[in-house]
Amino acid sequence: MDEDRQVRRIRPYYWGAIYLMDTACQEAFDIGFDGDGPVFSTASHIAIAVTHAGTVDEGEADVTLLVRVEPGRVDGMPHEVAFDVPSGLLYVGDADGSDDIPLDPPGRWLLQVAVDDPREARHIEIVASPL
């Protein structure tokens, strides 16, 4: 797998969520966090609730995020969202930092998500595959 098609980050998320969208998205953020979670989505945005850095002791806020691109669906991922990425670049992050992950071909992608804890996620894995 190409290095630019995999991201691993360990850091606190002071907004309490990891956000995903097409990098060219011009639509206002439109996700409400009502419901079961931890994955929330609309037609143009996805949010994954994680440990909110402002609600835990300093040094306990780090969240590990692994994002990888695969040629097809993988087993063992409990959450799925079909998502359009027309620019071919997927934004993953929050207001404090982000990565742009190239997705080829541009278009419709399946994003599969696994978290270690649906209420206070500290380990998140995201797998993207073309549809």
Count up the domains.
1
In whole angstroms, the N-to-C terminal distance is 18 Å
Weakly predicted, low-confidence segments: none
Q: What is the level 1 CATH name?
A: Mainly Beta
What is the C-alpha radius of gyration, as a whole number of Å? Answer: 14 Å
Could you tell me the number of beta strands? 10
Order of helices and strands: EEEEEEEEEE
Query: How many H/I helical runs?
Result: 0
What amount of the residues lies in strands? over 45%
CATH topology call: Substrate Binding Domain Of DNAk, Chain A, domain 1
Range of helix content: under 10%
Specify the structural class: mainly beta
Overview of this structure, please?
- The chain is mainly beta.
- It has a single domain (3-130), classed as Substrate Binding Domain Of DNAk, Chain A, domain 1 (Sandwich).
- The chain is built from no helices and ten strands.
- The chain has strands at residues 6-11, 17-22, 39-41, 46-49, 63-69, 79-85, 89-94, 97-102, 107-115, 123-130.
- Strand 3 and strand 4 (46-49) form a beta hairpin.
- It is globular and about 40 Å long.
- The two termini are 18 Å apart.
Task: Put the structure in a nutshell.
The protein has 131 residues and is mostly beta strands. Helix content is 0%, strand content 47%. The chain has a single domain (3-130), classed as Substrate Binding Domain Of DNAk, Chain A, domain 1, CATH 2.60.34.
Q: What attributes does this structure have?
A:
single chain; 131 residues; mainly beta; Substrate Binding Domain Of DNAk, Chain A, domain 1; 5-stranded mixed sheet; 5-stranded antiparallel sheet; globular
